[in-house]
Amino acid sequence: MKTCLITGTTNGIGLATARSLAEAGLNVVMATRNLPQASLVGDRLKKTTGNNNVSIISCDLSSLDSVWLCAQTFLETHDRLDLLINNAGMMTGNRELSTEGIELTFATNYLGPYLLTRLLMGTLKQSNDGRIVNVTSNIHKMVRNLPLEDLTGGNRYGGMLAYARSKLANVMSTFSLASLLAGTSVTANCLHPGIVASNLLPENTPLLRFAGKLVRRVMWNAERGSQTSIHLALSEELKGVSGKYFGANTREAVPSALARDHKAQQELWRFSERLLSNHSGFAWETDLYRTETSR
Length: 295
Ligand SMILES: NC(=O)c1ccc[n+]([C@@H]2O[C@H](COP(=O)([O-])OP(=O)(O)OC[C@H]3O[C@@H](n4cnc5c(N)ncnc54)[C@H](OP(=O)(O)O)[C@@H]3O)[C@@H](O)[C@H]2O)c1
Known about the structure:
This protein is an alpha/beta fold.
């Protein structure tokens, strides 16, 4: 039985994706910071799908320590991982910092999932069809630069811009991962799920609540928004396909020029590795690009 670890399943696209994976008979492990809600979701999924192999594991993606603990717990309790779906995401109108002092959107949407992926890459390689699926967004195309020197988001913070930058980082790191994993059994792809009615949009002012109500009418539901994730996770025709960006219609799409910029990808990768290796405990080969070229 294939095992999948998926983040962000308490609601929205992640919940719909987890349901389909459970229906498909996978062992579904849901990584969550919201244990009570995830527990309710888990019970409901077991009941409605008849699949009892649904479990939860604690993980707050905004905290490197929590992600580290999640990966260690997973590795101690599971002997295989075939599919990692980095689905969880957030957006906030106000600038906030993570426990490690990093702008919260970048920490949650990019750095945490990046660390989780790095920590689980070894076990994914043991699967004969290991897949990494990163849920990103078309909004990454609005970004003109990725200022890695402003990690706290202190310079001219904007919620939408911070979100778009984190999603650009998702696309770039997917491409880096794919090239680094070339020649192994593991693939890495990313996707835009569509414009989906979910809890993602911040609704902390009456105007945003009003706007949210209006736009929800024309948005897709979560089931429709989960189709590309499910396609990338399960489709036989995608076995061995890696380093691609897919649109909401399950077809391959074109990411922004910046996302495809190899130099920018390397800078982000090296920056991320340095950042994580500075954080105590994360001591691995820090320059995978160097490893790649010296192979
Ligand atoms: N909706 C759209 O139109 C749209 C468009 C493009 C891309 N996306 C992407 O699709 C993905 C799913 O979004 P959605 O629309 O389904 O949003 P959603 O309904 O708000 O669901 C987000 C999920 O992420 C989890 N999450 C948030 N912060 C977390 C943290 N620090 N640690 C662990 N889990 C956390 C939430 O769990 P809690 O219960 O703990 O809050 C929730 O389960 C995101 O990556 C988003 O960027 C969405």
